[in-house]
Amino acid sequence: MSEFIFAKLFLKEFILVNILFFVTVVLILSLSWKSSLLLFVIQFLFSWLLYFFIGQKRKKDISEISSLIALIMEKRKNAIEEKNLSPELFEIEKDLKTLFKKNQKDFANMRKLAKTRTEFLGNVSHELRTPIFSIQGFLETLLNGAIEDENVNRRFLKKAMNHTKNLNSLLNDLIDISMIETGEMRMQPTFFNIAELINSVTEEIENIAKEKGIKIIEKYNNPEIEVWGDRDKIKQVMVNLINNAIKYSDNGKIKVFTEVKKDKIEISVKDEGSGIPSESLNRIFERFYQVDKARSKVVGGTGLGLAIVKHIVEAHGSKISVKSKIGEGSVFTFFLKTQ
Ligand code: ADP
Q1: Same domain? 165 vs 228
Q2: How far is the CA of 235 from the centre of ligand 1 (A)?
Q3: Which atom of ligand 1 is closest in space to residue 301's alpha carbon?
Q4: Which of 332, 175, 315 is nearest to 268 (CA)?
């Protein structure tokens, strides 16, 4: 009978206990050989009965656990939740159900990751293809004779040049984002003067703003204050935010201002540009998300700038927030620690 096979695990212990019991009783009660034989027979029968019950219980427990495992393998979520094992198996039941939930979560994450990777590759190839095709087109036109045409040759070369610039910034952004996401971008925090950093960034970018008739205004309520962070990375954040403010404004002012709050300093970049539709506000920090793809293409956007900003700001234990109104402008704010 299979019950005995299930109890086999305890066979040695069983025989040992029986022998000990038999010998002890025989010795203590000084039984005759007849009584001893009777005791042996009775004890043997009881033992086998007990052995059978133990086997039966083990068989039942194992089959209960197997049926739960079978449901897990078939991924029958509702059936798994409804399935209850005997109270003694509660711990095993709890562990198996937790394991199932964790596996489900891991699978979902893996699927999401695979989807993100495919989407990312699709986006990258698409973004690379556009400038490469354009450069190829301009060069072909020039080679086919336009090079001799004084009216267009310089214009076409300039356009090809602009596309190589876009290509270059796309590749730089891609390198940054992949370094951030693989954890290779190490933060090297120090104390540095934020007003001085913002000032150097605006000086570098001022000319691009001037060409569009945009004025950059800086306002610091405490220009001496030092912040804790990676200077180069924060510089990149400021460059991306101020560049966006210029790119998405046709005129008006850009205000870069700071405000000290307890042990933090709030840094804001405010523009009077196109503004962002409310439904896009929580999507603009996603990789490759652009409100108006056509406009971004014209102004040389890669769709990665704000994703990089978000990563860097969050790596400083901070958060980037945005307020915007269509036609009135946008303000991007984040904070840095001052102590
Ligand atoms: P891009 O390189 O296209 O500018 P970003 O990641 O920097 O990519 O920004 C994502 C999108 O958010 C932009 O395409 C643009 O639609 C919108 N955006 C970002 N900054 C501003 C801003 N200051 N004003 C209006 N729209 C903005």
Answers
A1: no
A2: 18
A3: 2
A4: 332
CA atoms within 13 A of residue 224's CA, in its CB half-sphere? 0
Number of domains in the chain: 3
Residue 154: give the domain boundaries: 119-181
Q: What is the pLDDT of residues 238-281, one digit of tens each?
A: 999 999 999 999 989 999 999 999 899 999 999 999 999 999 99
Q: 196-229 pLDDT, tens per residue? A: 999 999 999 999 999 999 999 999 988 889 999 9
Residues ≥6 apart with Cβ < 8 Å to 217: 253, 254, 255, 256
Mutate to test the pocket of ligand 1, among 171, 244, 296 (most ligand atoms within 8 A of CB): 244
- Render the burial of 32-49: b for 16+ CB within 10 Å, e for the rest: eeeebeebeeeeeeebee
Of the three residues 136, 152, 181, the one that is the final residue of a domain is 181
pLDDT beyond 80 at 297:
no
Domain co-membership, 202 together with 242: yes
Query: Would 92 be classed as within a structural domain?
Result: no
- Do 209 and 254 contact (CB within 8 A), yes or no? yes
What does the angle CA 284 – CA 290 – CA 293 come to, to the nearest 5 degrees? 170
> Looking up tokens 């101020």, which residue turns up?
242
The phi and psi torsions of 142 (rounded to 5 degrees) equal -65, -45
Residue 93 lies in a domain: no
Distance 265 CA to ligand 1 centre (A): 24
CATH code where residue 131 lies: 1.10.287.130
